[in-house]
């Protein structure tokens, strides 16, 4: 007979403790023990508690391999205990063996709801080919089968990445649901914004805004310094151009080496901005011209709001970077992909209302492109694919599971909620945006046909767009620092567990994970360049860096500023109620306001963007890993180095921001969430 000390750590979250009874079975090389109750007088497993239990094994089980955890309601609760299951969040178990052997830590970090059994392994990460004992191999297979039975794929809309097969957040397993605190805060924020606008009589008003001044009424319900700055500067050409660099959609601008044939800008048109002594060809050769092309919007399906058809444009915008430290400025805007007498090229020298209306059409295109593609597709649907494949194909003991699981937190909850309340028929996108769910769907399908792996890898994306040296591009500057820090961290972890390229090729679980992402997320499109297998450590490092960056920094950059840039609606209108102008000299203030979204649609969208911009508590900034899945010294040292690197990056960003009229904070590491959770 041998005596063990078992230490159990319960999570600190609301309702993490349990009244249920817990027992453990110790599995070793010579057999396994019977269930050993962990029982004190009174209540065990309170939230935040670490408790010691002494257990006696009736026989020697040999070297400890696994820990089976059993949880069930006490007999005193009778039928009620089964009808109203009690949940428990277990952080970890620890075994103290006889004769002073090293402590064995068994990470858990899972909810166990109702009557439940769970098999845990000692915390050392293991790749599949390094697990030689048949008990370990069987445990890996059984764990993955159980998770594949729990989490299934479905097609939400044809041509979109596949997603979790659940209808509502009520159906979700506790391990992927919002915490009680986060869920409560989320709905309280929504109720507060909803009530404020209803009290002002705006939420149900279907008509036009009476004036630009009246729009300030919605602007006042929540204020941020960035939103105030947008309100004060939205008409300025320099601010209009700067949003392609540091606004909500900083991913589309590219260097222009030659003018597209369907954008016939002439020297005479742009001479007032370029000034004397130069021309278009000279500036093209110098590399000072940039293009933003919303051509993917051409001919896209549009919506009907309040019984009125809505309109969309597919503009092209030419921009000029002044020599030295001058600002980026717009040179010309064409509101369609087809030049001609009904598609004039608008210029800064035009009548002020013509020029403002043309810029506003570009901003509406930015809204549609950003919300459907940059935000929904790239920063929500793809992270859901990474999350679901991780849960289905990587066991808890796999080093990539331990590395990636913090970057999947709450992603399945927020995306399931989006399919309930945001992108479902008759919900916000469908009732209040210019494209509606039909246009969003068509846009995502088009983008999926064009998507390329290099678009997902920031260094390649920056290089392909030719924007390595454009000044004042803080999304690029901060993003590249974050990418580099993540890449170094990932490389250290990969090198700990994969000694060679062959070890990558031989990891069948890793290859299944990559293959499932390719088939379910990228719909097996070879043209995408997304790998369906990984052959080298270098390729694995890039791939995992891409996954973590997409789930954290990329989402923060294109999500956290939604309210800041949309609170003053003319800066980023969600729809347009009149068609794009086909001639110059017709625009007036009355027509401008009549083109903008109706009052109720404006309110609907701004409430949604307020909610989607603000993490409702229970945050975990990038590099924060309170759940200690890695127990070995080497990965823990890499985590500490990663955190130190991020802190250094943050200090540099904050110092730079002190000198900016509009600080760029979205990629400051403390502001970046580990995962897509809102």
Low-confidence stretches: none
The CATH first-level class of the largest domain comes to Mainly Alpha
CATH topology of the largest domain: Lipoxygenase-1, domain 5
Structural class by helix and strand composition: alpha+beta
Q: Could you give a short account of the major beta sheet?
A: 5 strands, antiparallel
State the total count of DSSP E strands.
Answer: 18
3D structure, described in words:
This protein is an alpha+beta fold and 678 residues long. It has 23 helices and 18 strands. The strands form five sheets. Strands 2, 3, 4, 6 and 9 form a five-stranded antiparallel beta sheet that branches. α9 crosses α13 (436-450), α9 (352-393) runs antiparallel to α18 (508-521) and α16 (474-497) packs antiparallel against α19 (537-559). The longest helix is centred in the middle third of the chain and has 42 residues, at 352-393. The model has no long low-confidence stretch (mean pLDDT 95). Keywords: Calcium, Cytoplasm, Dioxygenase, Iron, Lipid metabolism, Metal-binding, Oxidoreductase.
How would you sum up this structure in a few lines?
It is built from 23 helices and 18 strands. It has 678 residues and is of the alpha+beta class.
